[in-house]
Design a protein that fits this description.
By secondary structure, the chain is of the alpha/beta class. The protein is built from nine helices and five strands. The protein has a single domain, classed as Rossmann fold (3-Layer(aba) Sandwich).
Length: 225
Amino acid sequence: MAVSIQLMLSVLVAISLMGCGGRSEAPKPAPVVVEAPPPVVDPRPVIACFGDSLSAGYGLDSGKSYPDVLQQLIDAAGHKYRVVNLGVSGDTTTDGVERLPGVLAVKPEIVVLEFGGNDGLRGLPVTSSEQNLRTMVEALDKAGIRVVLAGMSLPRNYGPEYISAFEKVFLDVGTRYKLVRIPFLLEGVGGNPTLTQPDGMHPTADGTKIVAATVFRFVQPLLRR
C-alpha cells in the first residue's frame, strides 16, 4: 500500500511538471558583447585631386585614374602622402565652387586644382571661369592649402580667339596667386588618338600614366619625405 501511494505521488509530480511546461531550462548565458576595433586612421597628409572627369578617371577601370597612378608614383619615390580623388565627371568651375566645403573637410595639404575644361567645351564666358577659379584658389589659400593649378586647352575648332582667351585664364590666375602651374595637364596626350579614348579628349590607361607623371613632376618639389 505504501508503495502504491509513493508511486501515485511520483505520477502526480510528473503531471504537475508537464503542466508547467516540462523540465525547467537552465538560464541562458548573457550575450558576449564584442566591441568593434577603432577605425584605422591614416596619418599621412593628403593630396586632393579636385576636378572633373579628367581627375575622376572617366572611361577607365577602377584604380586606373591619374590620382591612382599618382599615388603609385608617390609611394615609389618614398613620400608618405595619401592621394584622394575628388573628381566628378561633368563638373564646371561653378560646380567646383559649390563643392569647396567638401574639399576643405578633407583637410588636404596640397590640392591639384583641375577645372575649366567643361566650361570651355560649353563655350562659357572665360570671365566667369576665371572668377570661379579665383574663388577656389582664395578659399584654399585661406585654409593654408598649397594649390597646384592644372592648365587646360581646347580643340582647335573652337577658334583661335576663344582658345587664346581660355588658356590665358590659367596663366593669369597662376601668376596672380603665385601658384605652381602645370601649363597643360594633357601634355603629350591631348590630340594623340593612341592615348585618348574614342571621344578624343579623355586619356586611355596608357595616356593616364603620362598625365600622372606630368602632375608628379610639378607636385614632387612640394612633398616632404
